[in-house]
From TrEMBL:
Disordered: region residues: 684-712
Organism whose genome encodes this protein: Hydrogenibacillus schlegelii
Keywords: Membrane, Transmembrane, Transmembrane helix
Keyword presence, tRNA processing: no
Coiled-coil ranges (or none): none
HD/PDEase domain: residues covered: 477-632
Segments traversing the membrane: 257-277, 289-310, 330-356, 368-387, 393-414, 435-455
Pfam families: 7TM-7TMR_HD, 7TMR-HDED, HD
Gene3D superfamilies: Hypothetical protein af1432
SMART domains given in the database record: HDc
InterPro entries: HD/PDEase_dom, HD_domain, HDIG_dom, Metal-dep_PHydrolase_7TM_extra, Metal-dep_PHydrolase_7TM_intra, PgpH_phosphodiesterase
Protein's UniProt name: HD/PDEase domain-containing protein
NCBIfam families: HDIG
Length: 712
């Protein structure tokens, strides 16, 4: 049966468009930022101006970094090559002097003069004379002491400004040396002249320290609520620069109006989708309310609050865009209802707007509210009414797309800098949150199913797969029962959807409601292909026990396979406490005192709408299968009689079906059956002696229908 539209889409959308235009006209002035473009340099302020938002002051930050770098002292390092060069010079001097000492052809004056020329320093005359006539052993001792002193002092580093102090250390090094006065003087003179500055600027280390000092400077922000210009303050270039940075010197209306148009358009589309295809519904089961509260607490108070602390307190403003809050409405859409998903999306947006609020004097941070509302609503819409793993991933992708639109909407309304880098970063963060929401949903659904006993559509779709072991067993071992179950499933799903019950649960429950018949398939009429009927050899009481046992066998099989309790309940309740009429009448023929209670199923009676619908569809299909070419009137009478008998027998006493819902169930079953049975052509009646009096006539049909219904 086609769903009746409350209102044609054209008029609904026209009304939404009119409201959107009116909203734009009402709000267009409110989105324009306050402007102070008429302020003059050098004038005194007549008002106090607060920063309307928090912005990063790049120029002030750079100025602070330059000051920090300028305060870093230069780093110097010891040039080892200078030390090595000076030591090498000393070695060369002593080698040359040793050669002079070995030359016995030189006169005294020639020897002293030659030593003077070998030494590049201006020394005391007595030093040259001492060096010219030193024995080799003494010369080596002096060489050793001189080099040791020079190397020790220069390795510590000799700054040009501290050269005199470094040379003065030579005497300190010679205090413990047992040397003659002339030899001590030689060492002092050579060592002092050999000590030269070897400390130079370490440019690389200095630049590294300056960079570290610059990096240590915290970014400078103009925070929302800061006083940018106070009363009677002189307006200088710095004040004007800050006002320009805050967007308070601009009169551009294009960006705010474009942002307003985007948000109104997005909300209008969401409203159209919501009015066109959703109906707010939340099952009254306690476990579903518990799950809804858990989603509110776990996501809104923990996940959103955690992200708010990390982003607001940590200064990572764009961290909001990584929040996978769309997982909450996605889980609600799968386990609760579409209406619950929209409700939780709105709740999460409001909670996020409050928790991410950084503004002074406001309740909700608009950026967070819009972003969370857009991603939540988009995810709930995209997953639809038939959730699956693929649709969940698609919903995450749609949530990511909505997040991207929301990000740029906020940027346009807030006057944020739209650069290629920021656009790429925001887009990437929105994509990550959408995919993360989908993955988080898929990971948590099995956990929530097990914890709350809620059966998700994805789990039902898995159970509806014909390759499921029990369905394969039913098809191979009891093919008639399998096809009967498929027909019951079609009827039950249509009837359940007609009254707003779980159509998918009714369908899957129908697939498995008779699985117990696989224990003794030949004892059920739909599996008997013209062969001898086993019940003809049994007493009515034995047949009764076999028929009843298929319910217990089915429940046991489903429990052993760890099926969800909702499916097990349908299998246990689909006959309720109805009477097995065919075998009851046979028993009464043998023992007139037989009571109907002896041939009743043990129950329980249906406790859910889905179980009651499966009971009706099972009886109708079983009875109808035995009728030959029934007319529409006969089918309608059969459905009406079946429902009336169940009501009179009290089978619906434990479920909350109303008479209006039973009427809709009847109409849905008739509409579904109308496509399966063609209209019957009425032929003139033949004489009582003709073919019309065979067992295929009305009496035969009635007996077989009762037998088949009882055997179901």
């Amino acid at each position: 049966m086609a769903k009746r539209r409350v209102r044609p889409p054209f008029w609904r959308r026209l009304a939404i468009f009119a409201v959107a235009v009116l909203a734009f006209l009402l709000f267009k002035d409110a989105v324009l930022p306050q402007s102070f473009h008429d302020l003059k340099l050098g004038a005194r302020s007549t008002e106090r101006i607060y920063a309307p938002k928090t912005v990063y002051d790049a120029k002030a930050t750079e100025r602070a970094r330059q000051e920090a770098m300028a305060a870093v002292p230069n780093v110097y390092k010891v040039d080892e090559s200078v030390t090595k060069m000076q030591l090498a010079n000393l070695d060369r001097i002593f080698e040359d002097i040793a050669a002079v000492d070995r030359d016995e052809t030189l006169t005294r004056e020639e020897r002293i003069e030659k030593v003077r020329r070998l030494i590049p320093y201006d020394l005391t005359p007595s030093v040259y004379e001492t060096l010219a006539f030193l024995p080799p052993e003494t010369l080596r001792t002096i060489q050793y002491w001189t080099k040791s002193i020079v190397e020790g002092i220069m390795q510590a580093g000799v700054d040009e400004r501290e050269l005199a102090a470094a040379r003065a250390k030579v005497n300190e090094q010679l205090i413990l040396a047992e040397l003659s006065a002339p030899n001590r003087l030689v060492i002092q003179e050579l060592a002092r002249h050999s000590i030269v500055p070897n400390v130079k600027l370490d440019r690389e280390k200095t630049e590294e320290n300056k960079k570290a000092a610059a990096d240590a400077v915290e970014p400078i922000y103009i925070y929302e609520g800061d006083i940018v210009l106070d009363y009677n303050q002189v307006i200088n270039a710095e004040v004007l620069r800050k006002l320009e940075l805050l967007g308070l010197m601009q009169q551009d209306k294009t960006r705010p109006y474009a942002g307003l148009a985007l948000i109104i358009g997005m909300l209008a589309v969401s409203l159209d989708v919501y009015l066109g295809r959703s109906r707010l519904f939340l099952a009254a089961g306690g476990e579903k309310f518990a799950l809804m509260w858990l989603l509110m607490l776990a996501f809104d108070l923990l996940l959103i609050k955690g992200f708010a602390l990390l982003t607001v307190a940590g200064g990572f403003r764009d961290g909001l865009y990584l929040l996978p809050a769309a997982a909450m409405p996605l889980i609600a859409a799968i386990l609760l209802s579409e209406g619950a998903a929209y409700t939780l999306a709105l709740y999460g947006a409001i909670a996020g707007g409050i928790m991410f609020n950084e503004r002074i004097g406001t309740l909700i941070e608009f950026r967070a509210f819009l972003y969370l509302l857009a991603t939540g609503l988009a995810g709930a819409w995209a997953i639809g009414t038939a959730p699956s793993r693929s649709r969940t991933l698609r919903a995450g992708t749609v949530a990511a797309g909505a997040g991207i639109v929301a990000v740029f909407t906020v940027a346009l309304l807030g006057g944020d800098d739209l650069t290629l880098l920021s656009a790429a970063r925001w887009t990437g963060e929105a994509v990550v949150q959408g995919l993360a929401a989908a993955v988080l949903t898929l990971g948590l659904i099995p956990l929530f199913e097990a914890a709350f006993g809620i059966l998700s559509p994805m789990r039902l779709l898995e159970l509806a797969n014909p390759n499921q072991p029990l369905l394969r067993k039913l098809l191979l071992e009891a093919p008639g029962t399998y096809h009967h179950s498929v027909m019951v499933a079609n009827l039950a799903e249509a009837a359940a959807e007609a009254i707003g019950a779980d159509g998918l649960l009714a369908r899957v429950g129908s697939y498995y409601h008779d699985v117990g018949k696989t224990k003794r398939p030949r004892y059920f009429v739909e599996n008997q292909l013209g062969e001898e009927r086993p019940h003809d050899r049994l007493s009515p009481w034995e047949s009764r026990d076999i028929i009843i046992d298929h319910v217990f066998d089915g429940v046991k099989m489903l429990q052993e396979m760890r099926f969800p309790q909702a499916i097990i309940d349908i299998a246990a309740q689909h006959h309720g406490t109805t009477v097995i009429k065919y075998f009851y009448h046979k028993a009464k023929e043998r023992k007139p005192e037989t009571k109907p209670e002896e041939f009743r199923y043990p129950g329980p009676k249906p406790k859910t709408k889905e179980a009651a619908i499966v009971m009706i569809a099972d009886t109708v299909e079983a009875t109808l299968r035995a009728m030959k070419a029934p007319t529409r009137a006969e089918i309608a009478a059969l459905v009406e009689r079946t429902i009336r008998e169940k009501i009179d027998d009290g089978q619906f006493d434990h479920c909350d079906l109303t008479m209006r819902e039973l009427d809709r169930i009847r109409e849905a079953i008739l509409a579904t059956l109308s496509g399966s049975f063609h209209a019957r052509i009425e032929y003139p009646e033949e004489s009582a002696s003709g073919a019309g009096s065979t067992s295929g006539g009305p009496e035969g049909e009635g007996v077989e229908a009762e037998r088949r219904s009882s055997a179901q």
